[in-house]
Amino acid sequence: MQGRAAGWVGACDSDRDSDEAGVGMARDGVPGWNPQALRQARAEADLTQAQLSRRTGIARSLIALYEREEQGRTPSPARLVALAAALGRRPGDFLKEDTKGLAALRALAGLSQQELLDRWGDPDIKLSAYRAIEWGKVRRLRQHDAAGLARALGVTTEEVIAAHEHDIHQWNLKTATKDH
């Protein structure tokens, strides 16, 4: 990775959860959120939104928003983990099958970007630099950085590399669309 933290400062927005930031931008919550999966799991557990709220500590109104198909919100990674635990499911059960990338791996680990950095423990990587990695703006991920991320996420280095390659591809598609 060239320049590590240099050159990326200020390139990205806040890492606050969508339900705490007051905006429903999916990138702030878990990517690939599947509201239908939450509704179905809650129904199968024979729980009301209020009962699930008591089990998780998440406001009933937020659970209702998480279950909405249109203009709903996505939970933070930590809330995804809490919902899954309360319903006896895996966090991945609440994501669309085609969800990929570093943000998805981070969400499945129940970590915010800052929590991931804290767990990674590399003082040379700043939040803005990690955001650039996660968005696919950073083309090369050094092997030792991929290994550090894998340890922090509880996955293999190969999974991190594949997720990063997916993010690069998505960034390329996004920037190519802007150019045309």
TrEMBL record:
PROSITE patterns, sorted: HTH_CROC1
Residues annotated as domain HTH cro/C1-type: 38-94
Gene3D superfamilies per the UniProt record, alphabetical: lambda repressor-like DNA-binding domains
SMART domains xref list: HTH_XRE (SM00530)
Listed CDD domains: HTH_XRE
Region entry Disordered, spans: 1-22
Top-level taxon in the UniProt lineage: Bacteria
Protein name: HTH cro/C1-type domain-containing protein
